[in-house]
Specification:
about 500 residues; DNA polymerase, domain 1; Enolase-like, domain 1; five-stranded mixed sheet; five-stranded antiparallel sheet; binds flavin-adenine dinucleotide; binds FE2/S2 (inorganic) cluster
């Protein structure tokens, strides 16, 4: 066994000291550790599946700031975060705020709490929002506050007073931050630890270099890849599955880059959904709303775009959009790479082309050109933080009034996310007019035979898919295209939290 592969404890900073854990199963969640082992019961368990926000904590990582290293704290759902993912990081919980944070004082002043069960989670999300804006010298709008809190549910107080508290906290004096220097020093010391190999139960590996990751995966093809864990932690919490040996992607520096060069956008497989959606919205502003409606801010901080694609749910939100954009996957096995069109990736329900030991290294997207049109729509029962009944990405390339090429991709219509080939054929080479639209809507009925399930009936899905095609046409037709305000019932969103 190489020096790198020697087992060592999980080490992270919590409540003023470096904590070492050496005997708990790698799938122990941060929430279980806090409540059952650390005696910190301020953080609550509600749903235990990332949906309610009662368990929100902040996890701090060392990042490069303009004047040297700083700690970047992100709100995460501790119920679906496995403990070894904290290795090398700082964990901050409601106990650390000590009752003095402006978020806590504002919640008191504005009567933002009744039974109090959701309150620690709200406070942690509000505190993260507060600290981020204070650092940037910005103030969130009420809508931006609501976006930040879309993963926190309250059953009894009501959101008005919580949002009031969110605005009020910026009028209060900031809390003292003496603890930050000690945390920074601890994180700098932890950065010298060797990569984590945690030989408890089936084992957990957190390589830090791409070649080490590729070697591990090739040598242990049976090991399960763990990115953000926002899909697979639920297999443990809800289905009580044994995940076996885990290889964690979150520490691999080479997977975290986003680059735009030579007409392509590359998004590394370790890039969080939050950063990935920001990059997508930068190049395709029409994707902003889809990004804000993808889960909640804590889920978007933890989860990855590549995890969404690799997981391959037929109702996943990213695949329809990325397929419409003509995405390719950069796959890696040991020292070799290959590229595959996302169109060809899915073989059946939750079944894809990845070979044993192979992993997604990056997603590659052709950058937009003049004459191209894109729309991304999501239909779900609840507007925020809900799983789609139907999602689509609709992309057209036009030359004057004529459609040169089209890619229409739908989720929720079949066993995998897939293209509507007949609808695409109906518009290719045609003028972008109402008769062409009518032909495409008719062809769409031949493309799919959707199922009925608890999210939507087959008839609803078929009708809504055709209507979304119409919506796209109404917004992009040459004569009197409708403004966004005419095709939506919700106010237009302007941006995501950081
Ligand atoms: C509360 C909640 C709300 C959600 N809302 C939405 C939503 O609105 N829309 C939506 O589409 N999804 C949603 N999801 C699902 C989930 O957040 C996404 O699918 C997310 O993108 C998964 O990414 P991850 O990094 O967490 O993947 P993980 O859970 O770590 O992994 C998922 C799967 O992909 C594999 N994998 C991960 N990375 C790679 C890689 N680089 N190469 C090969 N295989 C890999 C893993 O082995 C695993 O099989 C939600 C989940 C929760 C808990
Ligand atoms: S307990 Fe509900 S999100 Fe974690
Ligand atoms: S205060 Fe009771 S659930 Fe929010």
């Amino acid at each position: 066994m190489s020096q790198d592969a020697l087992s060592r404890p999980i080490r992270f900073f919590h409540r003023g000291q470096v904590v070492q854990v050496s005997a708990l199963a790698p799938t122990t969640t941060v929430l279980s550790w806090l409540r059952e082992h650390a005696g910190c019961v301020g953080t609550k368990e509600g749903c235990n599946e990332g949906d309610c926000g009662a368990c929100t904590v902040q996890v701090g990582s060392l990042v490069d700031g303009p004047a040297g290293p700083v700690i970047d704290y992100q709100p995460l759902n501790s119920c679906i975060q496995f403990l070894p993912t904290l290795d090398g990081k700082a964990l901050r919980t409601v106990e650390d705020l000590g009752g003095q944070h402006p978020a806590q004082r504002a919640m008191l002043e504005c009567h933002g709490s009744q039974c109090g069960f959701c309150t620690p989670g709200f406070v942690m999300s509000l505190a993260a929002c507060h600290d981020r804006h204070r650092l940037a010298g910005t103030l969130p709008t009420r809508q931006a506050l609501a976006d930040d809190l879309s993963g926190n549910l309250c059953r009894c107080t009501g959101y008005r007073s919580i949002l009031d508290a969110g605005q009020r906290m910026f009028e209060l004096a900031p809390a003292a931050t003496e603890g930050d220097a000690a945390t920074l020093a601890a994180l700098q010391a932890l950065a010298n630890d060797p990569p984590l190999h945690y030989a408890v139960a089936a084992g957990f590996h957190a390589p830090q270099r791409m070649d080490a990751l590729a070697k591990l995966c090739a040598e242990r093809p049976q090991a399960r890849l763990l990115a953000g864990g926002t899909d697979i932690a639920l297999w443990v919490n809800k289905q009580f599955r044994d995940l076996g040996e885990l290889v964690y992607l979150g520490r691999v520096e080479g997977l975290r880059s986003i680059t735009a060069a030579d007409g392509e956008l590359h998004i590394g497989a370790g890039v969080s959904l939050h950063r990935a959606w920001a990059a997508l919205a930068l190049h395709w502003p029409q994707t902003l709303e889809m990004g804000l409606r993808f889960a909640s801010l804590p889920i978007r901080h933890a989860g990855t775009l590549a995890g969404n694609i690799a997981n391959g749910s037929p109702i996943g939100d990213a695949a329809p959009l990325l397929m419409a954009l003509g995405a390719r996957l950069l796959l890696r096995h040991g020292g070799s790479q290959r590229q595959l069109a996302l169109d060809d990736f899915y073989l059946g329900y939750m079944h894809n082309q990845l070979l044993p030991g192979e992993f997604v290294e990056a997603l590659c997207l052709p950058l937009p050109k003049a004459g191209q049109v894109l729309r991304a729509y999501k239909l779900s029962k609840r507007y925020d933080s809900d799983i789609s009944g139907l999602a689509c990405g609709l992309w057209l390339e036009r030359d004057g009034g004529r459609v040169v090429d089209a890619r229409f991709a739908f989720g929720g219509m079949a066993a995998t996310v897939c293209r509507a080939r007949q609808a695409e054929a109906a518009v290719r080479g045609q003028p972008w007019t109402e008769p062409t639209l009518a032909a495409a809507m008719a062809a769409l009925a031949q493309d799919f035979r959707p199922l009925s399930d608890l999210r939507a009936s087959a008839a609803y899905r078929a009708q809504a898919a055709a209507n979304l095609l119409r919506r796209c046409w109404l917004e992009t037709r040459d004569a009197q295209p409708l403004p966004a305000s005419a095709t939506r019932i919700w106010p237009q969103r302007s941006g995501a939290g950081a």
